UniProtKB/TrEMBL annotation:
The keyword DNA-binding applies. This is Transcription elongation factor GreA. Necessary for efficient RNA polymerase transcription elongation past template-encoded arresting sites. The arresting sites in DNA have the property of trapping a certain fraction of elongating RNA polymerases that pass through, resulting in locked ternary complexes. Cleavage of the nascent transcript by cleavage factors such as GreA or GreB allows the resumption of elongation from the new 3'terminus. GreA releases sequences of 2 to 3 nucleotides. Keywords: DNA-binding, Elongation factor, Protein biosynthesis, Transcription, Transcription regulation. Gene3D superfamilies: Transcription elongation factor, GreA/GreB, C-terminal domain, Transcription elongation factor, GreA/GreB, N-terminal domain. The gene is greA. Residues 83-155 form the Transcription elongation factor GreA/GreB C-terminal domain. The lineage of its organism: Bacteria, Bacillati, Actinomycetota, Acidimicrobiia, Acidimicrobiales. Signal peptide: none annotated. Belongs to the GreA/GreB family. One of its GO terms (molecular function) is translation elongation factor activity. Residues 6-74 form the Transcription elongation factor GreA/GreB N-terminal domain. HAMAP family: GreA_GreB. Pfam families: GreA_GreB, GreA_GreB_N.
Length: 157
């Protein structure tokens, strides 16, 4: 199982979401299914099929959250010095032959930050930049070939 690095705030939010889905969410879906059953013929009952579909999606999300929380590694770097790229930070990268830099959050998609793309630490780019310092150039293999990026800045999310 692959570890997922997340902040304490994200961990707490995911635990709360899981709690909500496994309690109130399941009760509401059960009520919706029961109401739809009361309408009659299930083979042509759109409400019933919609409720069952919603139930399937909710149960899939519950399994996803359980797996994510089981493999979660909570990081806290509030007091630590930012001297190199590591999960939980935002890194500004400039591609070779490009004048502009782009910011990426290195971590789980569950920790999206508005305006910043998420890069998994286990992706080729994520693996290449972990441990790099401002000013370092790193290379990684992308589907289109070998790419080279410069670490321009590192900051907390």
């Amino acid at each position: 199982m692959t570890e997922t690095t997340i902040s304490q705030a994200t961990y707490d939010a995911l635990v709360a979401e899981l709690q909500e889905l496994t309690t109130t969410g399941r009760i509401e879906i059960a009520k919706a299914i029961e109401s739809a059953r009361a309408l009659g013929d299930l083979s042509e009952n759109g409400d019933y099929h919609a409720a069952k579909d919603a139930q399937g999606k909710m149960e899939a999300r519950i399994r996803q959250l359980e797996a994510l929380l089981e493999s979660a590694v909570v990081v806290s770097d509030e007091d630590s010095v930012i001297d190199s790229v590591r999960p939980g930070l935002i890194v500004a990268l400039r591609y070779e032959d490009d004048d502009e830099s782009s910011e990426y959050f290195l971590g789980s998609i569950e920790e999206r930050h508005s305006g910043v793309e998420v890069v998994s630490p286990t992706s080729p780019l994520g693996q290449a930049v972990v441990g790099a310092r401002v000013g370092d150039w790193v290379e990684y293999q992308a589907p289109g070939g070998l790419l080279k990026v410069e670490v321009v800045a590192i900051r907390r999310a």
